[in-house]
């Protein structure tokens, strides 16, 4: 999802960042946007924390900062647009590095692995790997 959003907003993000350096109204918009992005990161981390998904010893405040940074369209812009990484390479790199805030998680590539115990806890009839196939990289087992 980050790569899809990043590909759509990377240019706009860059333009707004540059404009914020020279225009007070653009600066206010940029600050609001950053605040909203961080709010979203805190919400994701709150959900992870409620499920016991934060890495041991990592405080939610720090985890939210890590999610916020990895979710920044500038990261996509720098690596995919400027450095010409393939989108797939960026996505794989992100999957390896962004979950540093969380406990080890499975990806959609693991969706056919049998025996995920998290289905019993959730009670939705899907094992975590089937859930991961629906929502890539979100499996709590």
Number of spatially distinct domains: 2
Count the E strands: 0
Q: What structural class do you assign from the helix and strand content?
A: mainly alpha
CA-based shape:
flat
Count every helix, treating DSSP H or I runs of 4 or more residues as helices.
7
Descriptive notes:
The chain has helices spanning 2-20, 24-50, 60-70, 73-82, 87-97, 118-122, 128-134. It contains seven helices and no strands. The protein has 141 residues and is mainly α.
Key attributes of the depicted protein:
single chain, 141 residues, mainly alpha, 2 domains, disordered C terminus
Secondary structure elements and pairings:
Layout: H1 2-20, H2 24-50, H3 60-70, H4 73-82, H5 87-97, H6 118-122, H7 128-134
Helix pairs in contact: 1-2, 1-4, 2-3
Describe what is shown at a glance:
With 141 residues, the protein is mostly helical. It has helices spanning 2-20, 24-50, 60-70, 73-82, 87-97, 118-122, 128-134. Helix 1 packs across helix 4 (73-82).
């Amino acid at each position: 999802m980050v790569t899809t959003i990043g590909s759509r907003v990377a240019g706009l993000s860059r333009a707004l960042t540059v404009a914020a350096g020279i225009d007070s109204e653009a600066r206010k918009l940029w600050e609001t946007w950053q605040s909203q992005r961080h709010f979203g990161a805190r919400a994701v981390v709150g959900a992870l924390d409620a499920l016991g998904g934060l890495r041991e010893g990592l405080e939610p405040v720090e985890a939210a900062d890590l999610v916020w940074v990895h979710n920044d369209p500038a990261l996509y812009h720098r690596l995919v647009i400027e450095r010409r990484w393939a989108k797939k390479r960026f996505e794989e790199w992100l999957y390896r590095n962004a979950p540093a805030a969380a406990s080890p998680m499975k990806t959609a590539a693991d969706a056919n692995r049998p025996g995920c115990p998290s289905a019993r806890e959730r009670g939705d009839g899907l094992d975590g790997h089937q859930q991961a196939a629906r929502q890539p990289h979100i499996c709590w087992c």
